[in-house]
Amino acid sequence: MALRDILIHPDPRLKKVADPVGDITDDIRRLADDMLETMYDAPGIGLAAPQVGVNRRVLVMDCVKEEGAAPRPMVLINPEITWESEALNTYEEGCLSIPEQYADVTRPAEVEVAWTGLDGKRHQERFDKLWATCVQHEIDHLNGTLFIDHLTALKRQLITRKMVKLKREKARA
Ligand SMILES: [Zn+2]
Fold it and tell me: Is 152 left (phi over 0), alpha (psi -120 to 50) or beta?
């Protein structure tokens, strides 16, 4: 396993629609392992392949937050939302590609998602609470959408300006 660099917004690679994965190859298995390691190291609760510069429909997540609880690393390949609740939920979201910026985003409170696992089989599960928010946020990444795209243009521009400044400072350091 290896840590991969996380792209920081604004970056054109974060705005692309990712390509579906065909067979589960060793490359895909390595990508998933690296993404999990990178996510836990950050630390974060979700990461999508475009965030590490790979334009494929792969995401990883683990929203177990309770102290001492067993981790639940999940790898979702070609995920699709097959149902969403009418009930909505608002969470303060953040993103590893938009460090230290947080904002309230309203999304369906529950979603049902179908995906291919590393076992090559199709899986389906209903997610709620933080898991529902996280899986929707990560699937957004696979479609070139960031959480700030759910905010007003003014808020989005404000955050984007901060990120441009951050990237400039990092480049100088
Ligand atoms: Zn994100």
Answer: beta
